[in-house]
Design brief:
It is elongated, with a radius of gyration of 15 Å. The chain has helices at 2-23, 32-57, 61-70, 76-95. The longest helix is centred in the middle third of the chain and has 26 residues, at 32-57. It is mostly helical.
């Protein structure tokens, strides 16, 4: 589950940056509806998976709040990815 959350986290963060590029005029506005819908679905998946993974991994409520807040800050997905990579490594070492 953590692996899927890592993927969704990065893709959601990149889609958010794409929407910001549209807002800044870097990308054509004709893609707004497609990007918006794609990002909205990814955002809902991110929130749902963050809740499930936090509960499964035994993370505190404060950790979940940090994951949630990171979803609305540009480039914060990079910090989340580093955190999730560390957690994934811990999980792999505990299984082995």
């Amino acid at each position: 589950m953590l692996k899927y959350f890592r993927i969704i986290s990065v893709v959601e963060g990149l889609s958010f940056l794409a929407i910001l590029c549209v807002t800044l005029g870097v990308i054509s506005r004709e893609f707004v509806s497609y990007l918006g819908m794609f990002h909205g679905v990814l955002f809902m998946l991110y929130i749902a998976l963050s809740f499930v993974v936090a509960k499964k991994e035994g993370w505190s409520f404060l950790s979940w709040i940090a994951l949630f807040l990171a979803s609305i800050v540009p480039f914060a997905f990079i910090i989340v990815e580093l955190f999730l990579r560390k957690e994934s490594t811990k999980q792999a070492l505990s299984v082995a």
